[in-house]
Amino acid sequence: MIKHFAPTSLNEALDILENNDCYIMSGGTDLMVQKHVSSGLLPKFDKSVLYMMNIKELDYINQDDKGNIHIGATTRYVEIENSSLIPAIYKEVIKEIASPNIRNMATLAGNIANASPAGDSLVPIILNDASLILASKNIERELLVKDFILGVRKIDRKANELIKEIIIKPQELNYFYKKVGSRKSESISKISFLGAYRIENDLIKDLRVALGSVYIKVVRSLEIENKYKNISSKEIDDAQFVKDYLALIDPISDQRSTKEYRNQVAENLLRAFLLELKGGSK
Amino acid sequence: MEIRFTLNNQEVVLDVNPSMRLLDVIRKELHLTGTKEGCGEGECGACTVLVNDEPYNSCLTPVINVLDKKVMTIEGFRETKEYRIIADAFASMGASQCGFCTPGMILVTHALLKKNPHPNEEEIRFALAGNLCRCTGYQAIVNAVLKISEENK
User: Fold this and answer.
1) Which of A40, A51, A100 sits opposite B18 (nearest CB)?
2) Does a structural domain hold residue A282?
């Protein structure tokens, strides 16, 4: 039998999850679309539902003494956009997600758990090595978001677990972000690109690239990144750099774009990022 | 499940399924039809209502998410003097044609002006980005909000 649970505390939620396999609903902006049947009818669920948004203790953004920023599971995008603790790159990405109305409702935890290849927030989250805490009644575990997301809508969550918070690190990198969609607001990405770098004494000390909507999950390669560290940006062979990344991606054609377009735009964005990295114009 | 919230300044207690869309609660249970359903998937903003003064798409809001919160629809907002100012500006600038998007546009405009009484054009376009209009093509709507912004100075 399908049951509906609306706990008001984390402990209550974790007790429920010990005995019930549930969809976990936060703002509803993905699940209410996926389970929608028709105007005037209830959404159709094939298992029980646990509603998160009345758990007020998970609505927080705070910073610990190491400088890491903790974002509670029911914290909505609008709160993240307006918080002075959140690094600018996250705000830049979030401001281009969906619409203001959706950002008043939707949560970062929900976007991560939805595990869409086109989830825009995942791009800075994965590029910056953000992690999350999965809580269950007796134990908590922390893992990198990149390891939590296994594939399209596949996540490493056990039935008795829920995302309690996301932990992001303060960053001192230069960022280059581009979201390509069919209009400025409310578009789901055809492709999203985030590059980051830190240069000291003409040497690249940190270099990162994350690409969204071009594979079953956000693409990032530590191997390629390490290959281009501790050299001068002038030494990077653009064609080789592009080739390294294009070998990793495998975009599909869907209602939003085509495989060919996505491959071409990925190449263009990689080259634009290199131009900036090498001190050229944007 | 018993769900309690404030609708247009009046307390409402309903025994409904918590997954019911707030839009269906408003239109079908409470018979307030000023809130419109356009796309039903969170893109058009015709179903916008204010929840604790913030615009929400009621088509994607399970009613449990407004437990103990303040919900305002166009019917409630119509009784305020702020409504009259916005409605007059929309009328004088030709910002409403078929009217289907207008309840949502007006509520989003109110939420914006409450936070920022003098928005510039960029801020107006950013705030209204979740509300689609297929008649007037936005410029008239932006002009209406700009007019209020100017008059607030």
Assistant:
1) A51
2) no
Find the CB nearest A54 among B28, B43, B67: B67
Residue in B closest to A42 by C-alpha = B20
Q: Which domain does A271 fall in, by range?
A: 174-277
Given B57, B73, B89, the domain boundary residue is B73
Minimal CA–CA distance to B145: which of B99, B79, B96? B96
**Structural domain boundaries, residue B105:** 80-151
The verdict on A43 touching B (C-beta cutoff 8 Å) is: yes
Same-domain check for residues A193 and A159:
no
If we measure between CA atoms, which residue out of B149, B84, B139, B88 comes closest to residue B114? B149
Q: Which residue of A has its CA nearest to B52?
A: A104
Residue of B nearest to A44 (CA): B19
- Give pLDDT tens digits for B38-90: 999 999 999 999 999 999 999 999 999 999 999 999 999 999 999 999 999 99
A24-74 tens-digit pLDDT: 999 999 999 999 999 999 999 999 999 999 999 999 999 999 999 999 999
Q: Which of B31, B55, B73 is the last residue of a domain?
A: B73
**Is beta strand A162-168 parallel, antiparallel or unpaired with respect to A131-135?**
antiparallel
Decide if A22 is inside a domain.
yes
The full length of chain A comes to 282
Q: Which residues on A lie below 8 Å from B48 (Cβ)?
A: 101
CATH number at residue A253: 3.30.390.50
Residue A71 CA from chain centroid, whole number? 13
